[in-house]
UniProtKB/TrEMBL annotation:
This is Xylulose kinase. It is an enzyme of class 2 (transferase). Keywords: Kinase, Transferase. It comes from [Ruminococcus] torques. Residues 17-243 form the Carbohydrate kinase FGGY N-terminal domain. Belongs to the FGGY kinase family. CDD domains: ASKHA_NBD_FGGY_BaXK-like. Its EC number is 2.7.1.17. InterPro entries: ATPase_NBD, FGGY_C, FGGY_Carb_Kinase, FGGY_N. One of its GO terms (molecular function) is D-xylulokinase activity.
Amino acid sequence: MRGKEEIKKTIEEGKAVLGIEFGSTRIKAVLIDEDKSPIASGSYDWENQLVDNIWTYSMEKIQNGLQGCYQDLVKDVEAKYDVKLTKFAALGVSAMMHGYLAFDENDKLLVPFRTWRNTITEEASEKLTELFSYHIPQRWSIAHLYQAILNGEEHVKDVCYITTLAGYIHWKLTGKKVLGNGDAAGMFPIDIATKKFNEKMMDQFDELTAEKNFPWKIREILPEVLVAGEDAGVLTEEGAKLLDPTGTLQSGIPMCPPEGDAGTGMVATNSVAVRTGNVSAGTSVFAMAVLEKDLTKPYEEIDLVTTPAGDLVAMVHCNNCTSDLNAWVNLFREFAESMGMTADMNQIFGTLYNKALEGDSDCGGLLAYNYFSGEHITGFNEGRPLFVRKPDSKFNLANFMRVHLYTSLGALKTGMNILLKKELVALDRMMGHGGLFKTKGVGQRILAGAIDTPVYVMETAGEGGAWGIALLADYLVKKEDKESLTDYLENKVFHDAVGTGMDPVAEDVEGYEKFMETYAKGLAIEKAAVENL
């Protein structure tokens, strides 16, 4: 780590790089130095609103959030290094993916921003999936556009440009209507050979909507798609004033292609190489695996996106992960307190998680479901947390904890089985991050057994997506000739990262498969609980 004076000099000379990411509840800015290490940060809390049954953020809130987050960073830099921010070596913006921002010829927003959270496009999603033979999730921009067409919405004829949140902010800062590959892949399917929007599918969409006689064709209203490292414009004078209304920030700063939060998450966990991926496991859980080739057919359980470099990624997303596990741990805390013991949550989690490793590899015949909410991968619109056992099951604490760890990844394994067993996807390693992996070696071992793949956990979770987009901005200006994003991350960012790898234990793999047989059969019990409780 560099000293304070050295970092101050880096900032003063405009050699630091800035990344800003718009999350669903927080906007975060991270400033990095020439070592790629975070040296300052800023944040701004915000919430979406439900307006006319549409989840949205207003344009005013987006602007206030951008400026508020940047000003918080300015304060942090001044407090730590006593220096004013005037310029950067590069800048990048990322945000939550998908959704629908539509503008007319005068750059006026036609309808309030429809975020990824809205589930109002089921008909469009199903029809486009059938048309393209390619899974189009409800949250994708093209599903929102087609649903608006199906609904006969008046604004559609006036559309001149549609984009994502990151694409919108980047446009306002640079004047460029462009989008990074990963974010673009959540708008419309990408052709991985060209790393652009799929030409055949754009033609199919135009044929589908031809009878409407709109004055636009789909390729005319989508952003230009760029891969990581490509020129995405510079911060204009208007953009500099938008970001920093005080006028202190200079224009002319190079900007990397705007990205989605899935892509920046892959960068921040060094998971952009083919045959690698990452699993984020907290309240919900998702896995992303970078593929060597296209899947043989579409699957409702699997979304296809891309890395910022344009490689195809299969994503398995599940609504439920650790909530039920945490609820049981809290029950044990309550017991400990009732017995007059001092209950340290880290110790309780650590003790109970490690106890699970003493259990039978198949959980001794115990069964649990962690469904606080519905789980689309197994066909549930609602959920009921359940714990079930037979009279002759081996009911002890070790098996009890093990079954709740297993089931936290049960729906994920259902989706991953499609990739690993039906599509024969090869994975060399997966990176685990999130609350499930906090107790060293436990969640990591359970995941390795579930997907029969080595799992790595870094000692630091990094700074998340804002750090990821800062690295993409750094890559734009620091990459060597023909240096891939994978090589840049491997050699210049994560070369001395401290982490631990764990290979799957054969007994765990076998036991997990046995558990999943019971899990699949027991879904009828979960269904009955939803219907009767």
